[in-house]
Each structure stands twice: as C-alpha cells, then as structure tokens.
Write a structure and sequence with these properties.
With about 260 residues, the protein is α/β, with parallel strands linked by helices. It is globular, with a radius of gyration of 19 Å. It has helices spanning about 10-20, 35-40, 45-65, 85-110, 125-140, 155-170, 180-190, 235-245; strands spanning about 25-30, 70-80, 115-120, 145-155, 200, 220-225. Helix 4 (about 85-110) packs parallel to helix 5. The chain has a 6-stranded parallel β-sheet with strand order 3-4-2-1-5-6, sandwiched between helices. The structure holds farnesyl diphosphate.
C-alpha cells in the first residue's frame, strides 16, 4: 500500500509499503491493556496511564482513517468487571471518556466517522451517557468508518441478553426453537450492525480474552503484543496488521494444496 503523502516518517512508510491494502481486516477489536503498568513504571497514579491511553486511542483512530479499509474498530474501554476498581479510577475514566468525546466530535464529523457503542450504556453516569448520546446522534449518518466503544460491556452479559430475547420470542409463540441458527444468534446479538470481526489485538502481553466479544471472535485472528497501550504507536499497529496478513486463515478447513 502507498502511505499518504502526509506521512514523512521513513519507518512508517516502509511498513505501509509492505501492507496489502486488499487484505486489511474489515473489523478490528482491541483490548487496550497496560495503562496501569505504564503509570506504575513511572511512579504516577493509574489515571495518568489512562490519560496517556486516550492519546493512543486518538493515534490509532486516526491511522484507521488513513488506512481506508478497516471498516470498524471496537475498543474495550470499560468492562462489566471494571466497576470493581476504586471509585476514583472509575470516575476518572468516565471523565476522560466525556472529554474525549467533546474534543473528538469535530474530528469525527470531518473524517466521516460514526460513533457507536455496545454494552449497557444506560448504567453509566448521566454526564458520560449524555455525551455519548449526543456524539452518536451527531455522527449517525457518517459512513467511512465505525468507531465502536465497548462500555460497561461483557460478552457473557451480551450473550445472556441475546438468549433472553430469543426465549421471549419463543415464549410468545413467535419463534420455533428449531429455527434458532448461528445466523439468528448473530443477528440477535447487539453487535449485529458491525462487520465480521477479523482481528483481536491485546496489548501488554497478557494471554487472556477477558470476557470480550466471545461469540464474535470465533474466527478472528488473535494478535498479542508486549507493548503497553500508552506506548502503542502507529508503527506498532501497522506491524500487527502485517502479522494478520501473514496468517493463513483456514476457517476450520484444510490448507489448499499448491
Ligand atoms: C486497561 O488497563 C484499560 C482500561 C480498563 C481502560 C481503557 C481506557 C482508556 C484507554 C481510556 C478511555 C477510553 C476512551 C475511548 C476515551 P489497566 O488499567 O487494566 O492496566 P494494567 O493491567 O497495567 O493495570
């Protein structure tokens, strides 16, 4: 792929040159891990790591816009389990989210980015909820790229919601249980509006799925990088895309013989 002219960094241009623009994953999801460790290594409060993490969010969203091939990016910004963190950290994260949305709205409008969310957003503090609703509404008609934030999200809860929806339809006599297929499950999940998930990236080296998109990642390629999220650069992201392109995606079938 050819790097846009605005990119002058030689190392980044070399990575662009190796990428196949026709084989970018259409939907990438990221477990943005390592903010706490980044802060700890510098003797800073954990929130400083999250603040730095927001800068990485900006960097990677901008790069996805430049790439023009990734159609959706899902970021695990707050999990159903994150409520067990200290109240000050939760409050700080909500504040960061609100500020991020306020500052980035203009960029989203300029770059044709649509903001969406998954998870139980209705349980978030009112200020964050209102900012989210406003941003979602203002960007609803944008077409180039979906920035999807997983907020108060957990895959088990999401799958439970899906099961309840189908069970209610069956109970009301509107659905024959025999008609429940993997496709119907897909279409009933809250993620049904997103393109198929093709790559899941986790930063900071942990080999865990952390209750993230468990159904959706069935055939996604997993890429784990040791880099902590606040340090994760544009070049790091391009390298993970190159790793994705080197994988042989067989979807359970055998390797085609040459
Ligand atoms: C995990 O690092 C990170 C989170 C739980 C929150 C991620 C949030 C952000 C990057 C900022 C807000 C996001 C947006 C979209 C504005 P950790 O704290 O678990 O790190 P550790 O494992 O090193 O402790």
């Amino acid at each position: 792929m050819q790097a846009p002219e605005t990119i002058t960094d030689a190392a980044e241009r070399a990575l662009w040159a190796q990428l196949d623009g026709a084989r970018l994953p259409c939907h990438v999801a990221i477990i943005m891990d390592g903010n706490g460790r980044w802060a700890q290594q510098r003797g800073l409060p954990r929130l400083a790591g999250h603040q730095q993490g927001v800068k990485t969010v900006r960097r990677i969203v901008e790069l996805c816009g430049d790439l023009q091939g990734i159609r959706a990016l899902t970021l695990y910004a707050f999990s159903t389990e994150n409520w067990s963190r200290p109240a000050a950290e939760i409050g700080g994260l909500m504040q960061l989210l609100k500020t991020y949305l306020r500052i980035e709205l203009a960029e989203m409008l300029k770059n044709d980015i649509r903001l969406t969310t998954i998870g139980h957003g209705e349980e978030l503090p009112a200020e964050a909820r209102e900012e989210l609703e406003r941003t979602k509404m203002r960007t609803a008609d944008n077409k180039k790229f979906i920035l999807n934030l997983a907020l108060n999200y957990g895959a088990r809860r999401s799958l439970t919601d899906m099961a309840r929806t189908l069970a209610r339809q069956a109970q009301a006599g509107q659905l024959d249980p025999a008609a429940i297929t993997p496709e119907l499950v897909n279409d009933t999940l809250e993620t049904s509006f997103l393109p198929p998930l093709e790559m899941v990236l986790r930063t900071s080296g942990e080999m865990r799925l952390s209750n993230f998109l468990l159904w959706e990642m069935s055939y996604a390629e997993l890429v784990v990088t040791p880099v902590l999220w606040p340090d994760f650069s544009r070049c790091d992201f391009l390298r993970t895309l190159l790793e994705f392109q080197q994988r042989e995606r067989r979807f359970g079938a055998t390797t085609p013989r040459q």
